[in-house]
TrEMBL record:
Family classification: Belongs to the DnaJ family.
Organism phylogeny: Bacteria, Pseudomonadati, Pseudomonadota, Alphaproteobacteria, Rhodobacterales
Domains (record comment): The J domain is necessary and sufficient to stimulate DnaK ATPase activity. Zinc center 1 plays an important role in the autonomous, DnaK-independent chaperone activity of DnaJ. Zinc center 2 is essential for interaction with DnaK and for DnaJ activity.
Domain of life: Bacteria
Zinc finger (CR-type): 142-220
Species assigned in the record: Puniceibacterium sediminis
Co-factor binding comment: Binds 2 Zn(2+) ions per monomer.
Designated name of the protein: Chaperone protein DnaJ
Cofactor: Zn(2+)
Compartments it resides in: Cytoplasm
């Protein structure tokens, strides 16, 4: 039986471009693969026919010969290099053809980039984390601080190359600089990371004595960082390129500074708001008056206590809280009164308080209301 025209086999017109040929073959390879056509006994022959057509048309010289002479170009002595389906050369050509499609379909997934590449880029350095604790005052005003970060830095003697004297690495002889090696297994070509160079595509014949060929050494590095005003616990600062140095000249990682604001003995923070609990004497709460309270900027503010103030009463100082991290004003400060009961009374003080208690029957409205409700509750329970 005469052979079908190779262009007809792939569903193409004569003069199709290499991209059109490859695209058509991909479609036919998927459509006719024997594993997907177990109910079609002709699929294997059709699959081989498509591979034979692609093997010829993908090659510029073979395609030119076929366009001029047709199938006769590969008969007798003229076709020895092209191979025939079923022969040893044909099987090798089929593996080569399918390898092209395998590269195109799975190259990105496997980390390669087709026949033209596959070598891994120099390994990027790891990102580093540094925990920094600041006071509430520092979080309020911001600060410039120098920190010491233990990290890997580029080796000075070899300039990060890993080779003695900074010499350039040489191409790996196992993978010829590709970073990957291939093995043909039947119809498939399997690609693996080169075991000699670990995918880098390069080897170092004479490793640097200072870093052992790694291109980096351990060292404490001093960094000056700017902590902006308004930071709070959990704020993260990123310093690009200040992380661990890359392997053999690879790009460095980043440094992430995680901030923690320490608790304060006077103020409690809630977002932009500050709370300050201020104790006042029983007499001051009853009579009213003025008190001075501290502010986070180190200053003082005078607050008027209304007469008859109870514990828990709050007063607001506008704009005396924490600043917003990226501008936009500041929060407020809340003063919470804590009426303090006197202790360690003298005999005279006790007598005065007993006298005061006897005269203050109508001065405790909350107590009067509460105990009136208690009395009603007990009476209802008896009923």
């Amino acid at each position: 039986m005469s052979k079908r025209d190779y262009y007809d086999v792939l569903g193409l017109k004569k003069g199709a471009s290499p991209e059109e040929i490859k695209k058509a073959y991909r479609g036919k390879a998927k459509e006719l693969h024997p594993d997907r056509n177990s109910d079609n006994p002709k699929s294997e022959d059709q699959f081989k026919e498509a591979n034979e057509a692609y093997e010829v048309l993908k090659d510029e010289n073979k395609k030119a010969a076929y366009d001029r002479y047709g199938h006769a170009a590969f008969e007798g002595g003229m076709g020895a290099s092209a191979g025939r389906p079923g022969g040893a050369a044909g099987q090798g050509d089929f593996a080569s053809a399918f390898s092209d499609v395998f590269d195109d379909l799975f190259g990105d997934f496997m980390g390669g980039n087709g026949r033209g590449g596959g070598r891994q880029r120099a390994a990027r350095g790891a990102d580093l984390r540094y925990n920094l604790r600041v006071t509430l005052e520092e979080a309020y005003g911001g600060l410039q601080k120098t920190i010491n970060v233990p990290t890997s830095v580029a080796c000075g003697p070899c300039s990060g190359s890993g080779a003695e004297g900074g010499a350039e690495p040489t191409a790996c002889p196992t993978c010829s600089g590709m970073g990957k090696v291939r093995a043909t297994q039947g119809f498939f070509t399997v690609e693996r990371t080169c075991p000699t160079c670990s995918g880098l595509g390069q080897i170092i014949k004479n490793p640097c004595r200072a870093c052992g060929g790694n291109g980096r050494v351990q060292k404490d590095r001093a960094l000056s960082i700017n902590v902006p005003a308004g930071v709070e616990t959990g704020t993260r600062i990123r310093l690009a390129g200040e992380g661990e140095a890359g392997m053999r000249g690879g790009p460095p990682g980043d440094l992430y500074i995680f901030l923690e604001v320490a608790p304060h003995e006077l103020f409690e923070r809630d977002g932009l708001a500050l709370h300050c609990r201020v104790p006042v004497s029983m007499s001051s709460a009853a009579l009213g008056g003025d008190i001075e309270v501290p502010t986070i900027d180190g200053g003082r503010s005078r607050v008027k206590i209304p007469a008859g103030s109870q514990s828990g009463r709050q007063m607001r100082l506008r704009g005396k809280g924490m600043p917003a991290l990226r501008g936009g004003g500041a929060g407020d400060m809340f003063i919470e009164l804590a009426v303090e009961t006197p202790v360690n009374l003298t005999s005279k003080q006790r007598d005065l308080l007993r006298e005061f208690e006897a005269l203050s029957e109508d001065n405790n409205p909350e107590s009067k209301t509460f105990f009136s409700s208690v009395k009603s509750f007990w009476e209802s329970m008896k009923g």
